[in-house]
Amino acid sequence: MRVEKTADALRPDRILVLSAHYGLLDLDDIIEPYDTPHGAAGAVTAEVLLEQAALRDSLLLDPVVALGGARHVSLVRALWPHVRTPLAGTRGMGEQMARLAALRGDVVRSGRDIT
After folding, report:
1. Which of 60, 107, 59, 108 is CA-nearest to residue 86?
2. Residues paired with 84 in a beta bridge
3. Higher-pLDDT residue of 4, 37
4. What are the angstrom distances between the C-alpha of 100 and each of 73, 95, 111?
5. How many Cβ atoms from other residues are within 10 Å of residue 25's Cβ?
6. Which residue has the higher pLDDT, 110 or 102?
């Protein structure tokens, strides 16, 4: 749950989770386990995410920060082209975890926004 802790440290107005199978979720949504990667048959599409964002009244969010890998970010960018992507350029889970830890520390120490 390091991503969730980092998201909390950013003090957002709203946190949504992007599931490759279910699409946009709130933190308290309960889902069944799945094994569907982005891009596979049965994976959520940008069109579905657009509908979900409209139903959740989330289309006009700004700023939007995506804490995920390239596949997640590409779907998020389809809805929010102005998305901030602090994990961009990382080369795998290890680098992502290190960047998340650094982001948490930076936000806690300085109270600044992450761009």
Report:
1. 107
2. 65
3. 37
4. 15, 9, 15
5. 16
6. 102
CA 19 from chain center: how many Å?
Answer: 9
What tokens appear for 10 in the block?
Answer: 């950013």
Q: No. of H helices and E strands in the chain?
A: 4, 2
Q: What DSSP line would sit under 61-114, residue for residue?
A: -SS-B--S-HHHHHHHHHH-TT-B-TTTT--SHHHHHHHHHHHHHHHHHH-PPP
pLDDT tens readout for residues 39-95: 888 899 999 999 999 999 998 888 888 888 888 889 999 999 999 888 888 888 888
d(CA 101, CA 62): 24
